[in-house]
Design a protein that fits this description.
74% of the residues lie in helices and 0% in strands. The chain is mostly helical and 133 residues long. Helix 1 packs antiparallel against helix 2, helix 1 runs antiparallel to helix 4 and helix 2 packs antiparallel against helix 3. The protein binds fe (ii) ion (2 copies). The site of one fe (ii) ion (FE2) has 6 residues, from helix 3 and helix 5.
Length: 133
């Protein structure tokens, strides 16, 4: 499992969202480290990642809604899909080791990478053209 590394391709140009993406990546790297060391902190980090993801998705959706971003529903559905997968994994983990911890962290890593460098890049220009920075 390799860590998520910040790069300029992650930038949306919206300061609050870029800061939140940095915090999410740090937390995901923390989860990766906890899982690979079999740390007892794993469940706490997992819950924190879920809470931060929820806050971030709400913040992003509020901005998109306030500025009438056209693709908001597709974007929101993608956020919901990830939250459902996080909740499902968290429930399984709470019931005992799932045996797929590493696979799930790899999935999260790909998801955040693809989402921040893909879908999240679309609202940047739209919001910046409307004075958000
Ligand atoms: Fe997003
Ligand atoms: Fe995002």
């Amino acid at each position: 499992m390799s860590p998520l590394i910040w790069s300029h391709t992650c930038l949306t140009g919206i300061l609050a969202m870029d800061d939140q993406h940095g915090i999410l990546m740090d937390t995901l790297n923390e989860l990766r480290s906890a899982i690979s060391h079999g740390s007892k902190e794993t469940e706490e980090v997992l819950h924190r990642l879920m809470a931060l993801s929820m806050l971030h998705f709400d913040a992003e959706e509020s901005l998109m809604s306030r500025f009438s971003f056209p693709d908001i529903e597709v974007h929101r559905a993608e956020h919901q899909r990830l939250l459902a997968q996080l909740a499902d994994f968290s429930n399984s983990y709470a019931a005992g080791s799932t045996g797929r911890e590493r696979t799930f962290v790899d999935f999260l890593r790909s998801w955040f990478h693809d989402h921040v460098e893909g879908m999240d890049q679309h609202y940047g220009p739209w919001l910046r053209e409307r004075g958000v920075s």
